[in-house]
Specification:
With 450 residues, the chain is mostly helical. The chain is built from 16 helices and 8 strands. β5 and β6 form a beta hairpin. α2 packs across α4, α7 runs antiparallel to α10 and α9 crosses α10.
Length: 450
């Protein structure tokens, strides 16, 4: 652990060539009391050197820089590494860590990242034998951290900015989006069981709601696109004898907006999720065996096609009539698209990291998701990269490629265990609720037996 100590108005006459009575001086001390020579050398040089310390920048700026640097050093030491071990992946992780802090926004995060990079550049300048950081685009030597230097003219002077892939997306316009999180998704699915929109519930109503919810979450489709799904699409993807988490290909997914409107896309989806939609299809075709259309979602009174407006408004009516109306007031059908894209980017980042140090990790992850969603350009995904960087793919996150009923059940079980440990749910109630949650697992545990 590194601590920054502030020496109030120290006598720096031995160090400086001007009156420094009003200058505060930060310095770095290891937890064991040792002087951190590298960090202290850097902060002195960054602040103008021994003869101009505290003149430009001001003392307050020097202290802010020292505190920012200490944050980075402590992050690295918490991972049992030192600054000399820093890699591109560490900078990505540091960016994610910063964004997870409630008092740090993307602009502040960008400043912290640049402080850490400037410190690494300083260390590299002390020893040419180090391969710590480089701005060379095609270096023959394998460096640990890769940056670019953006140069431009301001007021007839050249200015420079350090760029790294982890802050490239932070520099792009950020638009707040309403994503539906795990607890909200569980509430959304359960809303059908307590809504005034269906005072008398039956199996077909429940199955249709589950099919709609699961496909919104698993495919990232807009509600206007889901309205165009056909039963044949689902049947062609389903493998009756496959494992619940085996990925199958769902083809001919319609795209109704953007550059690729009127095209179709395809994604891989867990077979167990498809199985739940098949259960709904089986009930529909058993009740209306002579349907003349192939639309997936039908009017449950007569089996006719649902109008687009009814379909788009239906989820809102169900949610508003349920006990979760307040909890889910900020989410909509489109929140599922935000969820789909964000988790896919977060998981792509984690997967790519395992393959080695990639200086363009975020770019590669975003491009991988572009292929799934048919976004027109990389820039349009910048908002989701912000969310993905906020550590959404945590160790407790169940991969989005697992079947949806299983992920919902696991989420609910983890939540119930936590409530029980906190004393907010007694053992008997917890066991009862866990057994209920396990019914979702039992429904997809043996797909081949259906």
């Amino acid at each position: 652990m590194i601590k920054v100590f502030i020496s109030k108005t120290p006598d720096l006459s031995f160090l400086l060539s001007y009156n420094a009575d009003d200058c505060d001086m930060p310095f770095f001390i290891h937890e064991d009391g040792q002087f951190h020579w590298l960090a202290n050398n850097y902060i002195t040089q960054e602040s103008g050197g021994p003869n101009y310390y505290g003149v430009k920048p001001k003392s307050g700026t020097i202290i802010q820089t020292a505190q920012s640097l200490a944050r980075f050093l402590n992050f690295m030491y918490s991972r049992n590494d030192s600054e000399l071990d820093t890699t591109d992946n560490d900078i990505f992780e540091y960016c994610k860590f910063l964004l997870s802090q409630s008092n740090i926004n993307p602009d502040t995060c960008k400043k912290h990242i640049r402080t850490s990079l400037k410190y690494l550049i300083f260390i590299q300048s002390l020893d040419n034998n180090l391969h710590l950081i480089t701005s060379e685009k095609y270096s023959q030597t394998k460096y640990q951290v890769h940056i670019t230097i953006d140069r431009y003219i301001r007021n007839n002077f050249f200015s420079e900015y350090i760029q790294h892939e982890s802050i490239k997306y932070l520099s792009q316009p950020y638009t707040e989006v309403e994503m539906i999180y795990d607890d909200e998704f569980y509430a959304w699915v359960d809303a059908i069981n307590c809504t005034t929109n269906h005072p008398i519930l039956n199996e077909l109503i429940s199955l249709r709601w589950e099919a709609m919810s699961y496909l919104l979450e698993a495919t990232g489709s807009r509600i206007s696109e889901l309205h165009q799904y056909t039963r044949k699409m689902i049947k062609d993807a389903y493998l009756p004898l496959a494992d619940a988490n085996q990925l199958v290909e769902l083809n001919r997914i319609p795209v109704v907006k953007g550059k690729y409107a009127k095209n179709t896309r395809k994604i891989s989806i867990a077979n167990g999720t498809i199985q739940q939609v098949i259960a709904y299809i089986n009930e529909v075709e058993k009740k209306w065996p002579d349907l003349e259309h192939d639309q997936l979602f039908v009017d449950l009174n007569n089996g006719n096609k649902l109008s687009r407006k009814y379909f788009q408004d239906y989820t809102r009516r169900v949610i508003e009539g349920s006990k979760y109306a307040k909890k889910l007031a900020h989410v909509s059908n489109h929140s599922f698209r935000h969820r789909f894209i964000t988790y896919r980017i977060a998981e792509a980042i984690d997967k790519l990291k395992e393959q080695g140090n990639l200086s363009n990790l975020l770019k590669v992850a975003a491009q991988a998701v572009m292929k799934l969603t048919l976004h027109a350009n990389e820039r349009s995904l910048s908002t989701y990269v912000h969310l993905a960087m906020s550590d959404l793919a945590s160790k407790n996150h169940i991969p989005s490629t697992n079947n949806t009923p299983q992920r919902l059940a696991f989420y609910r079980i983890n939540e119930l265990v936590a409530l029980n440990e906190q004393g907010r749910l007694n053992d008997q109630e917890a066991i009862k609720e866990i057994k209920f949650a396990l019914t979702n697992l039992n429904r997809v545990s043996n797909v081949d037996q259906e």
